[in-house]
């Protein structure tokens, strides 16, 4: 029969079987371990410490522990170490410290410190791991959150794109980064132009192009995708705002200027005419017999004709001139610095453009226009009214004519 003493002796014998040397325990820890004696020399490093600091064990044991610290931190760390050895009740704590690798690179380590009493005297035991990448990841997330907030607040997409490519190059193993828009323009760039290893879509044809120095980790790749998503949101917001601004002053069918933009351009032209003494020309273009196209072939065909006529009118004027759809089948052209001769020549170019045969869905249409031209430097309403009246006279005389008033 086993007595309680027999059971305790058996338990001790069982536990003794699991006892191992302290060095084996330190080698088995999942972190780097460095033990330093009171004379400030290293007496032990485990395999993970060799890997972390880049020093072979035979090379580093016996060396001053200051070898493992950046020079700028050595005085402070040495002062703290001496304090740890001197206190009556040994301290045990965890903190972040800087470490120095054999190749001269630095890292941030999260280290647990403690004084361990041994037969040979106290040892300062440091156990920890490199957290540089973790801290870098946290910094990337903070930067990304800030970028996202500013994107939602309406920050300029160009500024965000420039910040994004710089952030990628500074915080990831990235040699270059570029934001290229769908139309081929480079929107932002950092680093030399080189072959791109990573292409991240930013929406309708835009791309974030990245040249890698080495393969990215899953976390780093996720960060790059998050940056791309933030940029895509900013670019889409900018395009949405541009579409809204464009739609507010352009005709929805033809894409030409609408009455709002026409009036603004006419006011600007007249202000310039008043300063330099020139004349501004307003040309009212009214298509002849357009109603028959709608009646005979339908409004879809009529719309297609209007779109094509608008395109032709644009090709018949100077780059600085404004072509607007005034309403229905009426167009208005604003031209600066005209005299009667140049105004009539411009009107004839518009008439010739309209008269070219126009085919829609297999049906060829032959069009003409009644064009009224008004020249002056005074009231915008007066010029528009005079040009409209002149076009009415041209149509009343059979259409396909040009009438100029001054």
Overall description:
A 5-stranded antiparallel beta sheet has the order 2-1-5-4-3, sandwiched between helices. The protein has a 5-stranded mixed beta sheet with strand order 11-12-10-15-16, with helices on both faces. It has a 4-stranded antiparallel beta sheet with strand order 7-6-9-8, with helices on one face. Helix 6 (132-152) packs parallel to helix 8, helix 7 packs antiparallel against helix 8 (218-249) and helix 10 (291-297) packs antiparallel against helix 11. It has 3 domains: 20-130, Beta-Lactamase, CATH 3.30.450; 134-249, 2-Layer Sandwich (Beta-Lactamase); 259-405, Reverse transcriptase/Diguanylate cyclase domain (Alpha-Beta Plaits, 2-Layer Sandwich). The chain has 13 helices and 16 strands. The model has no long low-confidence stretch (mean pLDDT 88). The protein starts with a helix and ends with a strand. The relative contact order is 0.06. It has helices spanning 4-16, 22-28, 47-53, 57-60, 71-86, 132-152, 157-171, 218-249, 259-276, 291-297, 299-316, 340-355, 380-396; strands spanning 32-37, 42-45, 92-100, 106-118, 121-130, 174-180, 186-190, 198-201, 207-212, 280-287, 322-327, 330-335, 358-360, 363-365, 369-376, 402-405. The chain is of the alpha+beta class and 406 residues long.
Oligomer: single chain
- CATH fold title of the largest domain: Alpha-Beta Plaits
Q: How much helix, percentage-wise, in residues?
A: 40-55%
How many H/I helical runs?
13
Find the CATH superfamily of the largest domain: Reverse transcriptase/Diguanylate cyclase domain
Number of structurally distinct domains: 3
Strand content: 25-35%
The number of E-state strands comes to 16
CATH class of the largest domain: Alpha Beta
| Strand order, largest beta sheet | 2-1-5-4-3
Radius of gyration: 40 Å
Distance between the termini: 131 Å
Order of helices and strands: HHEEHHHEEEHHEEEEHHEHHEEHEEEHE
Task: Name the shape in a single word.
Answer: rod-shaped
Low-confidence stretches: none
Give the mean pLDDT: 88
CATH architecture of the largest domain: 2-Layer Sandwich
Report the sheet with the most strands, covering strand number, pairing sense and barrel closure: 5 strands, antiparallel
Task: Look at the helices and sheets and give the structural class.
Answer: alpha+beta
